[in-house]
Design a protein that fits this description.
The chain has six helices and eleven strands. The protein is an alpha/beta fold. The protein has a single domain (about 20-250), classed as Rossmann fold.
Length: about 250
């Protein structure tokens, strides 16, 4: 696996003079804290992003929806357990059921699992410590709306910030996910090796991100929206959002 000059390569494939802008919705729950980062990640790429408050019962006309990180409802009961009952989640389920693209990040991953839109669950980190650091991600399946723009052998260096990020699913679920290509990213070393010491939270099989069987709903615990400019440590996160935009363009 390799790590290239991401900002240089991304600029070479930049969306110059977007003829049509795509519209992304960014859900907001009490306690969300990466919603503004998600908006910035989309706007940096020349597209539109709009906040959608958790009490809304309709998503309007959106091309894709982002479920951001944070501590929705203070993580009471269990991370994402209360947010999954917000009115907007019914609209999100309908949107996803009709093939709409949904990407969850960190707490968004937890919410989507609690809502049954993604398999598995997020539990306390194996260390029982909150982990805030940069990690490397290896892309397992490049043939999805969330990964299609990521170059072969490209490692992504992105930050994590979570206490309940240990992904778990039972053996039969994992086997089914693997057979359907639902595992998208795994934690890796800087050399691209998926090894236990590169796994920051104890996730089963080193899993960092997954998608549903239909392939239109995905989530990951690391924060690509916080890695969209070299000035803040990395621009590798742009690959995820460029993948979404490329897929939307191809689908037009």
């Amino acid at each position: 696996m390799t790590q290239v000059d991401t900002e240089t390569e991304l600029s070479a494939i930049s969306d110059q003079g977007n003829a049509s802008k795509f519209s992304f919705g960014v859900l907001q729950f009490p306690g969300s804290n990466s919603d503004q980062d998600c908006v910035n990640a989309i706007e940096v790429l020349g597209h539109e992003a709009h906040y959608v408050w958790h009490k809304e019962e309709s998503l309007g006309h959106l091309d894709a929806v982002l479920v951001p990180g944070g501590f929705s409802y203070g993580d009471y009961l269990r991370a994402g357990a209360i947010a999954r009952f917000s009115p907007v989640m019914r609209a999100l389920a309908d949107f996803a059921g009709n093939g709409g693209l949904v990407l969850g990040v960190c707490n968004g991953f937890q919410i989507l699992c609690e809502a049954g839109l993604l398999p598995g669950a997020l539990i306390f980190n194996r260390s029982l410590q909150f982990r805030s650091e940069f990690v490397h991600l290896s892309t397992v399946n490049s043939d999805t709306p969330f990964t299609k723009a990521i170059p072969a052998d490209q490692l992504m260096r992105v930050p994590i910030a979570h206490g309940e990020g240990c992904y778990f699913a039972d053996g039969s679920t994992l086997n089914e996910m693997e057979s359907h290509g639902q595992i998208l990213w795994k934690y890796a070393t800087a050399q691209g090796d998926v090894e236990d010491h590169a796994n920051p939270n104890g996730s089963v099989h080193g899993i960092a991100g997954v998608c549903n069987k239909a392939g239109n709903v995905a989530a990951l615990m690391p924060h690509p929206e916080r890695a969209c400019q070299e000035a803040i440590g990395s621009a590798d996160g742009q690959w995820v959002f460029r993948s979404l935009i490329e897929h939307l363009k191809d689908a037009k």
